[in-house]
Structure prediction request, 156 residues.
Amino acid sequence: MVDTKSKEENISRPITGASEVYDTVKENVIRVIDEIAKVQPQYSQSVSNLQLDCIQTAKDTIHTALSVPKQFAGSLNITVPGTYVEQFAKQANEFTSNLIRTVGINNQLTINALDAARENVKIYNRTVDAIAEFNTNAVKAWTSLYSAQQQRFFNQ
Prediction:
């Protein structure tokens, strides 16, 4: 009888130890993710600031690049026929309008893709939860079967 009890204690001990190992791993991984989450707002703000700086630099570059030829043409009194200026302005405005519409469509597609990716992450999370629940139920079933077999074996 003493041997039987000793065997039962040895069987239950490794499960507790394994459980503690998994809990430790889980806690440490969650701590790392929490640390990453803490800096995420700063990261997003830095990316946003970089984008705004790039936009301002592009505007400044265009202003600077076009001010010199404009000054040069003005100082030499260069004139362009009115019909050419009108046609150029019409085509430039049309091109710009088309480009703005294209950028708007691209932005909407990108936003839709990001929303779909976010939804996929939610679906993935629900799938992981369902798999975990299934695995938990499977482990409970196997444990129950194993315990029943052990009880039957030790009661003989």
In short: Confidence is low (pLDDT under 50) at residues 1-15. Residues 2-75 form the longest helix (74 residues).
